[in-house]
């Protein structure tokens, strides 16, 4: 006997990935904790995360949008002002450092900077410059609007059951003096770039893990019951400031985020990882869920991801686990089952695949 003889079909590449039709690949996620239909769920993160909240709501789950739009706005105006996109009007939170920053301002009595950008007589918040596309009439109004969002974050975290956070990037621009990170490079969406002040950062696994750990600890300080579900956006980088090719820079970024999220999920029972990144970009799916620009995830791709999510949540709620294996193979294999894998030492493990 050896440990591979009792593994389920989903543990083997051939039976779990290579042989099934790509739409039949399943059991990609076994949730560590339940998310019930009445549990308040918050969503935040990169641009891919904007799909999650509305999908939860449509499925009958208790997604919380804690900053509601004022009356009179059209649907287009609500979207442009980031209503109905995430639980809070923070705009996209691409990095773990930015999540830590927002939660520190909202939950830890850390004073947010009073920096405001002025352009054409209007005033913009550097830490969410896209949330109010027309800006504010004064710097004071911009800062007051941020305080509304910080209060909403605090109130929502205190009452939440689960926070779903989607990691998007490792690259960010940081204020050299204040140490704060921006969601986009100054000068690209409002503001003015200052090479002496604005420095480029490409966070490491250790740094992402540190920032995630602090962010989760902050949230659970005010709500010890909170669970956190991490995921990684499958959307590649639009551009990289590293000087590398966009493809290799994307690989670095997503690998770092995936590793840090996975490590945190291993360390804490109240943190889990959902594989939206793998579901879209994995080998068996052959890139079919990307639009022709090879970056935008199609609506079919979003639906496919959420189908896996809801299927797993419902299995968890029903108490269903993986199917048991029956039967063993008493003799040891003498050669790899696939001649093309003869140079791969671990190819012998497919012998124990009963599928």
From TrEMBL:
Gene Ontology terms for molecular function: hydrolase activity
Annotated protein name in UniProt: GSCFA domain-containing protein
EC number from the UniProt entry: 3.1.-.-
InterPro entries in the record: GSCFA
GSCFA domain residues: 41-309
Positions of region (Disordered): 320-341
Comp. bias (Low complexity): 320-334
Domain of life: Bacteria
Top-tier EC class: hydrolase
Keywords annotated in UniProt: Hydrolase
